[in-house]
UniProtKB/TrEMBL annotation:
This is Glutathione S-transferase. Residues 1-83 form the GST N-terminal domain. It comes from the Bacteria. Residues 88-226 form the GST C-terminal domain. It comes from Rhizobium hidalgonense.
Length: 228
């Protein structure tokens, strides 16, 4: 299998955590795609994923699978013993629901703030964002407020459950973790009184699948070049 990604970016990090959880890293070849140079918006990459985003999984038979959730489901079920996406119908449904909330209210909200209210990934890439949005910082700033609302929600969840979808670490935790990782880079701090969310994050950071990758923060050499 091949994974087209870029180390240090939040959505690729989701899959690296999944691979570590499942012990699949030795079976994967990583192919680095230069996001800052907009390589993912060129025809060769768009053939793999028309959405023009990372990560993308390529199977040995040539099939391409995009979307972090779809890739996670595939990898988690390969050995017939899913541990991140649920075993029973109820577990699957709860993890799906919480994962979707984490994506919509936190990770994607941070991403929209980053792309539309800050210089984002820089000049080479901004031309691929729709021009009518270019000056709309107000809309982008509202996405920051949405992300803060997401943090508040997950702080509340963390007060009553050890993990985002219940008693076990799952795909939903990985999405929240990636959302906070992205928020760090975009300059959206977790409010100090969200102590349960901060404690949850500290706990998740210590998991071997996450801890071994803690050097892969979003602010890599790529973003330092952009002034982060
Ligand atoms: N919904 C997608 C989101 C993927 C995504 O936005 N990836 C980012 C990297 S963290 C990306 O490729 N951004 C490039 C861009 O927005 O042009 C998924 O779950 O895989």
């Amino acid at each position: 299998m091949k994974i087209f990604d870029r180390p240090g970016f939040p959505n690729p990090a989701r899959i690296r955590i999944v691979l570590a959880e499942k012990g699949l890293e030795p079976q994967v070849e990583f192919v680095s795609v230069d996001l800052i140079a907009a390589e993912h918006k060129q025809p060769a990459f768009l053939e793999k994923n028309p959405s023009g985003v990372l990560p993308v999984l390529q199977l040995d038979d040539g099939t391409y699978i995009a979307e972090a959730t779809a890739i996670t489901e595939y990898l988690d079920n390969l050995d017939g013993d899913p541990k991140l996406t649920g075993k029973t119908p109820k577990e699957k449904a709860l993890i799906h629901m919480m994962q979707k909330r984490a994506e919509t209210e936190l990770l994607d909200a941070v991403g929209d703030y980053f792309h539309y209210a800050t210089p984002g990934l820089g000049a080479a890439l901004q031309v691929f964002k729709s021009p009518e949005w270019a000056g709309r910082r107000d809309w982008g700033n509202r996405q920051r407020d949405r992300a803060l609302g997401g943090m508040k929600y997950f702080d509340t969840v963390s007060r009553s459950h050890p993990y985002v979808a219940g008693d076990a670490f799952s795909m939903a935790d990985i999405t929240v973790f990636a959302g906070l990782m992205f928020a760090d880079a975009a300059g959206i701090a977790v409010p100090e009184d969200y102590s349960a969310l901060t404690a949850w994050r500290a706990k998740v950071s210590e998991l071997p699948s996450v801890k071994n990758r803690s050097g892969q923060t979003f602010v890599t050499e790529d973003l330092r070049r952009l002034g982060f």
